[in-house]
Amino acid sequence: MTLLTGFNVIQIGGGSAAAVCGRMLADIGAHVTCIDAHTSTALLAHLNHGKAAAEREDLANAHMIVREGQPGDWSAGPYDLAGLRRLNASATIVTISPYGETGPQANDPASDLTLLFASGIARLLTGQIDDLSEAPVRPVGEQSAFIAGLAAACAGMHAALGKQPGASIDVSIQEALATLAMTELARVGMGGRSWHRKRTGDGNGATVTILPARDGHVAISPREEKQWASWLKAMGSPAWGADPRFATKPDRVRNWDALHALMSRWSERHDKQWIADTAQRAHVPSLPLRDIAEHLDTPQMRHRRYYQHRDLAGATVQAPGTPFGLSVAPSNRRQRAPTGPMPLSGVRVLDFSWVIAGPTTTRYLAAMGADVVKVEAPGGGDPGRGSELHTVLGQAKKAIVLDLKKPEALEIARALAAKSDILIENYASGVMDRLGLGAEALKAINPDLIYISASGMGRTGPDSQAVAYGTLLQCYAGFAGLNRHPGVAPRIGFAWLDPMCGLMLAFVAAAALWHRRHAGGVARVDFSMIEAMLWTMAEPLLATQLGEPVKPAGNTSTRYAPHGAWRCAGDDNWVGVVVRTQAEWRTLCDLVPGLSGMAALDLAERRAEEHAIGAAMTAWAAQRPASAAARMLLDAGIPAAALARSEDLLKSPHLAARAFWDGHDSGVLPGLPWRASFGRTIGPAPRMGEHTNEVLASILGLSRKRIAELRSSGALG
User: Fold this and answer.
1) Which residues partner with 211 through β-bridges?
2) What 3-state class would DSSP assign to 24?
3) Cβ distance 660 to 670 under 8 Å?
4) SS3 401
């Protein structure tokens, strides 16, 4: 099912991030054509599949123009911003670059690895470690391009909804990556300390951990006390389960090493799928760590018709499809045009989401001008309120409390849905239907409502009832298992998937609004997080089918050498370095004394001499601070970056020049993964139920008396 039929996009250049942006748009129906696109790798061939060639004159008819490169690339070429505006004054122009179009680092050379270091994500990726001599790693599959491309598609699609034509979007890959770690950035922005790579206590294992199995590994997440009790029963109620060292979650954190060893003795006697199935039957979230090949033919993917057959590199492969589970119903209502200065001015969003993925989505919608009404249950509300997460993701939203166990509260929810444009929810499968708030039930009272559900596996199929958090799905997809050095056990890592899904969901929400306005159809979105994860793991998926299965490789690369990280002076300071060309290699040999006799080595020879080159780089890096080492290399034209802490991003003159940080009563908060010519809506995160009375009065027209009655009944908590 397509949403963007009639929406014309032109993609300029051979950049992978622009190709990702174009692929996302094309996958839901946009007509994407390319100027100077590349198909030199299997990944680029997949990303640019089906995109016809465009000519310069075609730019005049584009709704969106996507280009990738540094500011210096455009000044000497035919596709500078002024030149594009002469050809097309109304199109949204999206520019993707390593460090953005402005700022002192705008023209610094960069690569996938160095951007992951510069954004701080390489520090967080694999979670805490025991030995700080282990170098940080980049994620598998050119993920900087996927995150930046998704940010570009999301921002560009919102801009296309705006009242004023001719918007410009500036996507910095560094910033798009950095905003995956919203909680970490918010913590330091509000005066807290940065996360450290050295493991302390359980390293978050009491929330989610990986156990060895007879045939691999399995991830489990008995994060609640009732889940822990169920997990003990699933393991056969071992005698050590009554040990007071493990009685409460804080106890388990303090005694984690002993507890993990005991669980491992049990788990290594069983197969990974059996353990996961046993846990799921006990309502304990658990999934096996799978190899990427194990996802190519499963009952769930067959049911959802996820893969698309495609001819690449002389072979027929299964390419990942869209994760949106789209269906569209006709609408006879007249659609409203934008009513204010922001793209989503006048759009109301009813937000039943919680924790990370959904609230990230609605944070972007609120920043683009939507009136977001966040619905929470009485008591603690969204678990994100227990950390800095709500402070950043709750910005510019309204918060109400409804006890959906009360019939009166359900009536309020239905009445709000009748007056909303979008509803988004990420409850467990079946919950909204049982409440009478499912898509079909609400269609009867608001046929114009765009209904978006997000779940681990999707709402249909044999695995749809599985309980699956984002970090578990990272394990299940093979992502966590590949993001490591050879010989190192897999780790959970930080919550990568949830914020990435926030970009996808905000994108499809904007696309659904565009479709409703221009084609009169109303979308139902059944979003699958595992399918989203696999969509961004296209490179290892394709490589596996083309006879080159991907294994954990740390920071090594088949395309570039040297390509890695070296420890610098100080506490856990590292510099990431990538040599892309023979000229860059000769320059590096001039700078690093231990390489002075190797300048004539070609790529194959450099890869063969990896240990000798690594030893020379180790000796050179150890003598200097990471920032000084990186700057020396950057000034010589070699991609490099110091491994950033969140405090480094907070103090960055480059990010300050780009107004990345927003002011807050208690400090500053991170901005969006893009800069837009029309700005962004900023506002404080609401207190629990802060706007309940206001929303019920202004949107539903309820009297003070009626609101008081609802409060007395407990419907409002």
Assistant:
1) 218
2) helix
3) yes
4) strand
Q: Mind listing the pLDDT tens digit for each residue in 140-189?
A: 999 999 999 999 999 999 999 998 899 999 999 999 999 999 999 999 99
Q: Is residue 115 a contact partner of residue 174, using CB atoms and an 8 Å limit? A: yes
Angle between helices 407-418 and 704-713 (to 10 degrees): 140
The angle formed by the CA atoms of residues 506, 502 and 391, to the nearest 5 degrees, is: 105
- Alpha-carbon distance of 287 to 492, in angstroms, equals 12
Rounded percentage of the chain residues whose pLDDT exceeds 90: 92
Contact between residue 539 and residue 313 where contact means Cβ atoms under 8 Å apart = no
* Mean pLDDT on 625-642: 98
286 vs 263: CA distance, rounded Å: 14
Paired tokens of 39: 């198909």
Query: Peptide bond preceding 562: is omega within 30 degrees of 0, i.e. cis?
Result: yes
409's tokens: 């509260």
Residue of 679, 678, 674 lying closest to 95 (CA atoms): 674
Give which of 160, 280, 171, 158 is closest to 218, Cα–Cα. 280
Cα–Cα distance measured from residue 655 to residue 231, given in angstroms and rounded to the nearest whole number:
45
Tokens at 631, concatenated: 């700057």
> What's the token pair of residue 98?
């390593």
Q: How many CA atoms lie within 13 A of 235 on its CB side?
A: 23
Over residues 433-474, the pLDDT tens digits come to 999 999 999 999 999 999 999 999 999 999 999 988 999 999
Q: What does the block give as tokens for 55?
A: 């000519």
Please, is 112 exposed, middle or buried when counting C-beta atoms within 10 Å of its C-beta (0-12, 13-18, 19+)? buried
